Q: What sequence folds into this?
């Protein structure tokens, strides 16, 4: 009791000291996955402008975080959830965890990104999962770089490809979806059978594919599944400054899968107004321009300006594969099971 | 004076703390998530069980889980026991350092260990390169990547320290005169070992085997990364069912298989150990430890030390080397003669490039966070574990002791995904609104550390002669004083061992931290995984450099703990 009184006294003192301004900043809780990051400067500007403290809850990778948000729905532990992507979108929508919010900034964003017509999940960023190749290897071996998914079926490309397992890796799943989108529900298995005959190497995670199997980093495979953004990051995070990327991307003729990440206001929030402001903030150029260097993904808002290195070397697929999220939700298990039967037997 | 009634109350109070902790932070979240999961089963639990049983891939995973865990445990014991003997019976130069180094693997992130293994044993690893040059071979003669061998090697690498610590520490205080007497009476060395030493060691040996088995049984990262897509354990299958497919009922059924197995094994263990434990005259290590005097002993120690160096230290050294060698030239045809180019760039960039966001941290900050969590875990798990072990040792007929003994082991046999989701479902309402609290991480780590603390302390406590404690009580010591002046000093070494386990478990833990950790206070493993998940030489190099820092900090921490002496030096 005594403590409470003292506290009250303090609060009154604090309030009177600050005059008109509401003294205690409110708290907004954002739930997200473990890749989330934002510059201190950009975040501070939001907090100051809205007199709010933002706290973050992380819950593992994308799939874990989405499931956690679903399990906590009804009595949400956060106001906003960021990070559900198009491979998990329909799970989140079916479980009805988001409130509708048509942010005014949506008008700035191309319609192609808006997968939820009901405006419960709003697009924030995207990244293309594409095959990357080690330029030096192809030069040394006097081999043409692949320009079509079909190239990988040819004998010259035997033993050159490493991919992550779609059952355990999100880029692995994205590449499986690429082959599904391109070859269809029957053709994809034939394609994978050809890849198996061509000695495709499957490991469980992207990290092992890129840093152990990839010939660029001492492995034996010069073609791997990675992102359209990997080459500029090879330049940005090179050991010694380099001028051009050492790796290339196969992005033409529908050979990439586009991952889009969304933000939504969680049902049952008591901070609806602040949550709206946070969503607007994520779609604004300030946050959008911060994305590439913090999270290695790219803005959906075309008004956001990119660093020169991305202007020069970022590969954005012109005709990426996009699968209907509802179909993904419906067939994910079956597609993976049939893939396993062909590739892992 | 204590009446019987008061005594009863006082003892029950001892259970209160560990029991309350487990109830709130283990059974409640676990029960909640299992209930929520099974509620989602549309056709009832029976249908789910049939579904799980009907899936050939799941059945295969269950079988493989038992098989690899059994094999791993056996191999770990075969390597760990001679190590325990060396550390438990001999004093030699560099002993503390060697023992500290054998504990370091325990904290290393799996992806980093996989990279270290690859740089040694991979297609272009040093061993293969050497063999190829020596014998003029065209292709790498050793292929361990993505095989059962890789899984077994990694399990040995990670878990041998459990055997060395638990059995070795127990061995240290074992009276050597018992074996000597057997020899004097005409027993051959192997007879003395089989009839005297082994039965005396049994409680610690069984505890170590149990812990190692359960760790291997619930293995996730090692199977996924070193085993590859052709291998799956129950834990891997739980992750796939729960996270990728959101088939929570099937995940719950699989998690229950893990729980039941853990419970069954622990119950068997408890029965066995109850029969095998006996009070012993504990001898101080000043008496039990011998110097290496004969050439035989020297040869044995040299051979065992070399084996441990090769198994546990070369991967670590190779990792450290990779963090200071330029990655770039590796892609050219590498030869052994060509000296590698050294670089400090990765370490520099760790400090320079981590300052613009609170979601990344400099190594100093991340280490501080990790050490803070590890320190809290040591305190929490010892505070909870000592009373529990004390009750198990001295009041094993107590009803609560009998019920709780096998249950204490459950947390390490529980799938991390399941428990993590349980925390989210259960601990999100006042008064348990802990989801944004930094206390959640050391609490979660203590759940894993507690079984280690209890299993290290109980065998040690049971060896204390009851007469000692009775004498102290007769002389007027109250129960608290008996604990303080008899129990604590006599189990000093086991207490230290427990602290080491709690410390290393917390320092290396990633699974639970990833699910419930705060993003704005990244631990060292969190930062390592963040760097590894991004393309670019600097990012990879930074992950290697930070792992090396974690390795050195752990070794330093171990050496510091080894220097602490609790009640040693006194002869009882």
A:
């Amino acid at each position: 009791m005594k403590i409470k009184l003292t506290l009250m006294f303090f609060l009154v003192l604090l309030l009177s000291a600050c005059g008109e301004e509401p003294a205690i900043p409110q708290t907004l809780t954002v739930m997200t996955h473990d890749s989330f990051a934002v510059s201190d400067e950009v975040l501070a500007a939001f907090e100051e402008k809205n007199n709010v403290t933002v706290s973050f809850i992380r819950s593992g990778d994308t799939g874990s975080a989405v499931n956690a948000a679903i399990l906590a729905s009804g009595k949400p532990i956060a106001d906003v959830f960021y990070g559900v992507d198009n491979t998990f979108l329909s799970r989140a929508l079916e479980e009805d965890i988001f409130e509708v919010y048509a942010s005014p900034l949506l008008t700035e964003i191309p319609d192609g990104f808006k997968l939820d017509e009901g405006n419960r999940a709003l697009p924030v960023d995207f990244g293309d999962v594409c095959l990357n190749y080690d330029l030096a290897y192809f030069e040394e071996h006097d081999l043409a770089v692949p320009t079509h998914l079909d190239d990988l079926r040819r004998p010259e490309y035997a033993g050159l490809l490493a991919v992550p397992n779609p059952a355990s890796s999100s880029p692995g799943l994205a590449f499986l979806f690429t082959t599904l989108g391109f070859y269809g529900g029957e053709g994809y298995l034939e394609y994978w059978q050809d890849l198996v005959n061509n000695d495709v190497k499957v490991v469980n995670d992207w990290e092992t594919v890129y840093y152990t199997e990839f010939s660029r980093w001492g492995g034996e495979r010069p073609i791997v599944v990675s992102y359209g953004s990997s080459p500029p990051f090879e330049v940005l995070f090179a050991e010694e400054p380099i001028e051009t990327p050492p790796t290339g991307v196969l992005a033409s003729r529908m050979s990439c899968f586009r991952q889009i990440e969304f933000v939504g206001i969680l049902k049952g929030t008591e901070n609806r107004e602040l949550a709206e402001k946070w969503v607007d903030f994520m779609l604004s150029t300030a946050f959008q321009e911060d994305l590439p260097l913090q999270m290695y993904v790219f803005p959906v808002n075309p008004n956001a300006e990119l660093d020169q290195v991305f202007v020069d070397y970022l590969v954005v697929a012109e005709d990426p594969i996009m699968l209907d999220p509802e179909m993904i939700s419906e067939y994910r298990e079956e597609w993976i099971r049939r893939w396993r039967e062909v590739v892992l037997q | 004076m204590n009446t019987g009634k008061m005594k009863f109350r006082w003892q029950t109070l001892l259970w209160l703390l560990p029991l309350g902790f487990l109830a709130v932070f283990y059974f409640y979240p676990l029960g909640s998530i299992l209930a929520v999961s099974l509620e989602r089963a549309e056709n009832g639990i029976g249908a789910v069980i049939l579904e799980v049983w009907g899936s050939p891939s799941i059945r295969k995973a269950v079988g493989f889980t038992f098989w690899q865990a059994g094999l791993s445990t056996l191999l770990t014991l075969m390597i760990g026991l001679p190590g325990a003997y060396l550390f438990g019976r001999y004093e030699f130069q560099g002993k503390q350092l060697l023992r500290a180094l054998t504990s370091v693997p325990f904290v290393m992130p799996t992806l980093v260990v996989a990279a270290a293994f690859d740089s040694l044993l991979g297609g272009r690893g040093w061993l293969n390169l050497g063999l190829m040059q020596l014998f003029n071979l065209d292709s790498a003669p050793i292929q361990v990547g993505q095989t059962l061998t890789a899984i077994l090697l990694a399990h040995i690498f990670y878990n041998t320290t459990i055997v060395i610590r638990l059995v070795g520490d127990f061995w240290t205080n074992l009276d050597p005169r018992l074996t000597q007497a057997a020899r004097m009476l005409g027993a051959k060395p192997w007879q003395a070992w089989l009839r005297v030493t082994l039965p005396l060691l049994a409680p610690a040996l069984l505890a170590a085997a149990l812990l190692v088995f359960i760790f291997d049984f619930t293995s996730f990262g090692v199977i996924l990364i070193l085993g590859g897509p052709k291998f799956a354990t129950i834990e891997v299958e739980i992750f796939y069912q729960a996270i990728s497919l959101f088939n929570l009922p099937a995940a719950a059924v699989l998690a229950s298989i893990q729980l039941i197995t853990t419970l069954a094994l622990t119950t068997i263990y408890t029965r066995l150990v109850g029969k095998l434990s006996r009070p012993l005259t504990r001898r101080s290590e000043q008496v039990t430890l011998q110097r290496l005097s004969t050439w035989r002993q020297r040869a044995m120690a040299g051979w065992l030390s070399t084996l441990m160096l090769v198994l546990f230290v070369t991967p670590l050294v190779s990792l450290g080397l990779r963090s200071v060698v330029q990655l770039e030239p590796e892609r050219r045809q590498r030869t052994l003669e060509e000296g590698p180019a050294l670089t400090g760039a990765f370490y520099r960039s760790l400090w320079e490039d981590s300052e613009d966001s609170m979601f990344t941290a400099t190594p100093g900050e991340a280490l501080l966070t990790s050490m803070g969590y590890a320190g809290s875990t040591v305190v929490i798990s010892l505070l909870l574990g000592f009373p529990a072990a004390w009750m198990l040792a001295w009041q094993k007929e107590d009803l609560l002791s009998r019920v709780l003994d096998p249950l204490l082991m459950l947390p390490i046999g529980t799938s991390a995904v399941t428990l993590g989701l349980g925390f989210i479902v259960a601990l999100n309402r006042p008064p348990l609104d802990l989801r944004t609290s930094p206390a959640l991480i050391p609490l979660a780590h203590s759940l894993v550390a507690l079984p280690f603390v209890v299993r290290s302390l109980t065998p040690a406590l049971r060896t204390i002669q009851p007469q000692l404690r009775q004498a102290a009580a007769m002389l007027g010591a109250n129960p608290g004083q008996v604990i303080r002046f008899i129990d604590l000093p006599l189990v000093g070494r086991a207490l230290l061992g427990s602290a080491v386990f709690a410390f290393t478990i917390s320092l290396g833990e990633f699974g639970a931290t990833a699910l419930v950790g705060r993003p704005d206070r990244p631990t060292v493993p969190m930062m390592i995984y963040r760097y590894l998940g991004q393309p670019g030489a600097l990012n990879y190099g930074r992950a290697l450099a930070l792992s090396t820092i974690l390795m050195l900090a752990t070794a330093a921490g171990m050496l510091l703990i080894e220097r602490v002496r609790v009640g040693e030096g006194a002869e009882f």
